[in-house]
Every structure is written in structure tokens, then in C-alpha cells.
Design a protein that fits this description.
CATH topology of the largest domain: Cathepsin D, subunit A, domain 1
Number of strands: 10
Number of domains: 2
CATH superfamily of the largest domain: Acid Proteases
Strand content: 35-45%
Distance between the termini: 78 Å
CATH architecture of the largest domain: Beta Barrel
């Protein structure tokens, strides 16, 4: 009798472990798919030689991509409606950016106080610019940097369908 209950217990244990492993595999499979939909450019190559970057629009219709500010990795959201690059306050502290002159910016949520700064370098893929105007926005949440026109105006932009090509 004891041996039958032990076998039954081991059989149930293996059945549960099989389901846990299957669910884990499904999670891993769909996690990559969700990442690809929300951040299709997450594996963007940081090449110095290539002066062209091709971005895919994400599921929300935005162009997001990894890049660097002063050699430190950041995540950019391209924003042609932003005059300058806008760095969230907490991220600016981690990047050790120096806040400069106070100014005001108009946003969808009203007018806010921001602090001017200069970025030694800004890179997106193989595109790199030096001494770029930006502002520190203490009101922005998260770690996503708005890549505004202070960078984008120096780059040729071509949009076709869900693809944006940036060329120096």
C-alpha cells in the first residue's frame, strides 16, 4: 500500500513538473515576441563606421532605440516635436549631467521648468554627434530620453511604412 502511494505521488510530481516546464518555455517564447513588438530595435548595432541607421516602428507607433549619452547607455524615443533632447531628472543625475540655465518648456501637460545642459556626445547606432543641446526635465518619469530636434535636425530622416531611416 505504501509503495502504491509513493508511485502515485511521484507520478503527480512529474506531471506537475512537466506542466511547469512547458509553461516556462511558453513564457520564454512569448516574452521574446512581446519584446520584439514593443522594442523592435532593442538589438540595434552601435557601429561607428556605418552612417545609416534603420529603425522599425513599435506596436504603439513609436521609434525607440538604444543609444548612448556621453558614452553611457540610454534608451531613446525619437520625438520630432521636441526642440531639444529631454533627459529625465533621475537619469540626468546618474549620467552626472550639470544643470544649467533655467527655462520653460511647453508640453501636453502645460508649461514646466527645465534646466539647459550640453551633452558631450550623443550616439544612435553609427550616428554620433558632439556638443549637443539638451535639457534636464525633473518632471519626466522613467529612463527614456526624448531624442529631439537638437540631434535630429542634423540627420536626414526618411520614413516609409513602419521603417525610419536616419542618415548622416
Amino acid at each position: 500500500m505504501k509503495q502504491d502511494s509513493s508511485r502515485h505521488f511521484i507520478g503527480r510530481l512529474f506531471a506537475h513538473l512537466t506542466w511547469i516546464i512547458l509553461l516556462g518555455l511558453f513564457y520564454l517564447m512569448f516574452q521574446d515576441r512581446l519584446l520584439q513588438q514593443n522594442d523592435p530595435n532593442h538589438a540595434l548595432k552601435m557601429s561607428e563606421s556605418n552612417q545609416t541607421v534603420v529603425l522599425q516602428r513599435n506596436r504603439q507607433g513609436h521609434y525607440v532605440a538604444p543609444g548612448t549619452i556621453n558614452g553611457q547607455p540610454v534608451r531613446f524615443l525619437l520625438d520630432t516635436g521636441a526642440t531639444d533632447i529631454s533627459v529625465p531628472g533621475a537619469l540626468a543625475n546618474r549620467l552626472r549631467l550639470t544643470p544649467g540655465k533655467t527655462s520653460y518648456a511647453s508640453t501636453a501637460n502645460g508649461t514646466i521648468k527645465v534646466y539647459g545642459t550640453r551633452l558631450d556626445s550623443v550616439a544612435l547606432g553609427g550616428l554620433s554627434l558632439a556638443n549637443v543641446s539638451a535639457h534636464i526635465n525633473p518632471h519626466m518619469q522613467g529612463d527614456t530620453v526624448l531624442l529631439g530636434m537638437s540631434f535630429l535636425q542634423q540627420i536626414e530622416l526618411t520614413q516609409r511604412g513602419d521603417t525610419l531611416t536616419l542618415k548622416r
